[in-house]
Amino acid sequence: MDPTDLARLQFASTSIYHFFFVPVTIGLAFLTAILHTRWYRTRASRHERLTRFFGTLLLINVAIGVVTGLVQEFQFGMNWSAYSVFVGDVFGAPLAMEGLAAFFLESTFLGLWVFGWKVLPRRLHLLSAWLVAAGAALSAAFIMAANSWMQHPVGYTADPETGRPTLSSIGDLFTNPVFIWSYIHVILAALVTGAVVMLAVSAWQLRRGHPLFKTSALLSLAVLVPSTLLQLGVGSQLGVIETTYQPMKIAAAEAQWETCQPCSFSLFQVGGFESSDQEPIKIIQVPHLLSLLATLSWDGEVVGLDELQAQDGAEYGTGDYVPDVRMQYWSMRVMAYLGTLFFLFSLWGVWLAARRTLPVSRVFLFLATWSVPLLFLMNTAGWMLTESGRQPWVVQGLMKTADGVSSSVSAAEVVISLVAFYAVFLLLLVLDIVLMLRFARRDLDASEAESPSDSLDAPALTY
């Protein structure tokens, strides 16, 4: 592997690993704030205890997530210095906003929330919980604005001397249609993630006979049903946006080599992922579905990979502009199928709750407890679909990935740092799993003997 492939592998690894924590943080922050609000309004001890319980899990996740996020920003200077020089006049603005505004807001009020129990006025303490959630969501907005610019560059002018893009309109950056729909997609994914994590923990506790967690299980289902339903709709609309601005990504996601109108959608296929093998065995084709997903039209046209390759070759010069079709095809289906599965699963939970049998449904509670690995698989597939589908571009139409690598970094140096990152990240992953499982399995009944001011000692120290 050359330095470019190794640098891509390293950034992909750290990005995927970091994205394990991001949606959990955003989703749990909102759900914890809801629990805190219910405690503020009802003054019921069960809501206070649940708020403290899930607040602990939130803090552990934030502590690990911050560490993994910092590594990514250092990589811009280490492995991708040519990219950083090229896009710095545009990319630097949203990253600076994220650090100076969003992360400052989130971390400040997280500290106030952790240490403000029985100290701050109740209303101010509640406000700090919601500002933590707002800061987490705002942080995602700035990051997604930067990422969406890489997918569809807007609001810039090219420097006449260097040819580098320079930000000319911050408004265009945040009204980029790719950003708007991608950001909504990420926030909904975070709500789904937080709800599934809360449901999994609640289900485990209910199986142990702790009825207090029925409240958190019902809350997670109340968030999960609309979030998954909206996510399916937003994901479909995002497909239409990408058909407009990144048609190669959509064609690759269906392994569609020839232009079609109307276009069917294959649930599964064997072969057909290489330019030399364009006749796959398609299993269960749904007529017109690809046209609907890509164009919102019953008979919409989807341009094929061969035609798009010819267009890009004529515009940008000789080269291979087709991304990894196999990765695109299966990433799209893993994300879509698991998203649909979670929606149906949440409906099952609501049906059990309506019949008042949720706390005693052993099958549902068992499956809910073990649903978290599928959740992270779904999130990872969506991220891979987004980033791999842009290749060979690091900035769509402006800079190829191979041109963004640091020229002074050798393959051996990247391998050494990659091994070091893997070792550290493995340690952090083990630490996170151990802490999350330890605090998720706590017996709330046994913790009642603790004084209220002491029950957040552990997460405070973790933070």
Short account of what is shown:
It is built from 16 helices and six strands. It is mainly alpha-helical and 463 residues long.
Structural description of this entry:
The chain is mainly alpha-helical and 463 residues long. The protein folds into 2 domains: 10-241 and 349-462; 247-322, no CATH class. It has 16 helices and 6 strands. The protein has helices at 3-42, 45-78, 81-115, 122-151, 170-174, 177-207, 214-245, 247-253, 289-295, 305-316, 325-354, 362-369, 372-388, 411-440, 444-447, 457-462, and strands at residues 156-158, 165-167, 265-270, 281-286, 393-395, 399-400. The strands form 3 sheets. A two-stranded antiparallel ribbon has the order 1-2. Mean pLDDT is 88; it is low at 446-463.
SSE topology sketch:
Blueprint: H1 3-42, H2 45-78, H3 81-115, H4 122-151, E1 156-158, E2 165-167, H5 170-174, H6 177-207, H7 214-245, H8 247-253, E3 265-270, E4 281-286, H9 289-295, H10 305-316, H11 325-354, H12 362-369, H13 372-388, E5 393-395, E6 399-400, H14 411-440, H15 444-447, H16 457-462
Antiparallel strand pairs: 1-2, 3-4, 5-6
Helix pairs in contact: 1-2, 1-4, 1-6, 1-14, 2-3, 2-14, 3-4, 4-6, 6-7, 6-12, 6-13, 7-8, 7-11, 8-11, 11-13
